[in-house]
Input
Amino acid sequence: MYQSRIFAPTLKEAPAEAQIPSHVFMMRAGLIRQLAAGVFSQLPLGYRSLKKVQSIIREEMDAIGGQEFHLPALNPIDIWEQTGRVEAMGDVMFHIKNREGLVLAPTHEEIMTYHAKQHIKSYRDMPQIWYQIQTKFRNEPRPKSGVLRGRQFTMKDAYSLDNSKEGLDKSYDLHAQAYRNIYNRCGLKFFVVGASSGAMGGSASQEFMVESPYGEDTCAIDEHSGYAANIEVASSALDPVGRIEDNPEIEAFPTPNSKTIDELIEHFSLNSDRCAKSVVYLADSKPYLILMRGNDQLNEAKLQLHVGAIQCRPAEPDELFTLTGAHAGSIGPIGLASDVTIIADTLLKDANGLVSGANKDGFHFKNIDLMRDCTISSYADLRTVQEGEPCINGNKPLRIVNAIEVGHIFKLGTKYSQALNAVFLDEQGKEQPIIMGSYGIGLERIIACAIEQSHDEHGICWPVSIAPYSVHMIGLGLHKSQEAVDACIAIHDALEQSGIDVLFDDRDVSPGIKFNDADLIGLPLQLIIGEKGLQQGQFEMKIRKSQERQTIAINKEQMIQQTVNAIIQQLQTMSS
Output
């Protein structure tokens, strides 16, 4: 492709709203342009990269037996209502106002299940793996970070249909390996974490993560043991508070100026481990009081999973007072004003000698024994792990990192098939719900993560596999040397005939502009051809990422083949 003919509008400066490297360089290199908040147009260079990602995904999905669909983005809302996800999605789902009963699909579990219900009748019809690469719509309240948090994006979503849990396990493992292959081929450094299934539901899920200071996800990892988990489900090996020998009766004491754990500790010289913080949440409108150790933070995802709720939120101040009889800072598990289910974090299991609010403003109880004085409905791991806490696999300190999610796989089980009555006849002729898995990849996120991981101050450093073009041929002095023009055209054509995609900068602009644009666009290999080099019998080849320069010695009779061979050899080395 001749650069003078391609629409690749580069920018010297990034728009003010572009704050992270991938957003900055995707805008500056002319890969994307913003149309509206969270909505981007893919320009030719960006779309070429997107198509290469699609090709890698298709190859790996087809290799595990996937069959490609293309489902409508417009969905009947009644199908979604049957699974309860209209409520669970909330405002994230786009509703069509002038065509009542239609929504824009944020994903396609319901629609795949709808088709499975129509056509899967027997256990012999499975296993099946169905997938698509399609546009999705999510009404993000605060779209940001370029294509990482958008309202319209491209997703590969796949669905497995099985007649047994063992079959689901096999399908899940096939996808997990396919995802590893995809990210490796796309040049990403990634790690896999256990994750919360959230509104998707199911028994298990894993996320594929790329570490980045700009990531919206937080993960706990231990490189020594290989442990990695999203902070929503991560656990540590902290010892429980346990019991102490001295165990007097509970006693109320005034705490008028102590509304936080830190203030209690400071004013009364308390041990933070013996302070039990109480918070009140409403899960699907049912009130829960959660007891946490000291300044531990409640992990809402863990709470939601533990109680099996669709929606979970902290109580409002007026609700808090009605339920407990006190305001924030004075609430606790004893003497509640109404019927509230009490759950305690596992670090407090059967603990005594605790201090917590007395459900009377300005007062706390001390000497609380959870076995004697409270009715604890259940204990669960509900806290958010912190940096440096011991890992559950070997006690090495955990590292807390920000990361970008590039894929998520779920063992859905029968949540959707039961809701939509998608059943099959087993070997005994008995109806059973189809057992499903769901597997998603954000394509634009792969590109953004590749740029986040591989760039410098000058621009992008593309992995060979997903670069818009493999080679950037920079022609110098073309306006005054027909010999250089002829050499560039001949090498351009020979490279393309050899299956190597090349962008030929034939523009009538200064060498400085060409070199700056080449580094900004960041194609893996630069080939610099000019009259001076031709006279000296050599071309220069530059590896974009390392800035390493090599000289290709040529003679005019074998110039084209020598150059093509050198390019092919270097690209193979870079791809290995």
Observations:
- The mean pLDDT is 94.
- The CA atoms of residues 475 and 529 lie 5 Å apart.
- Residues 165-185 form the longest helix (21 residues).
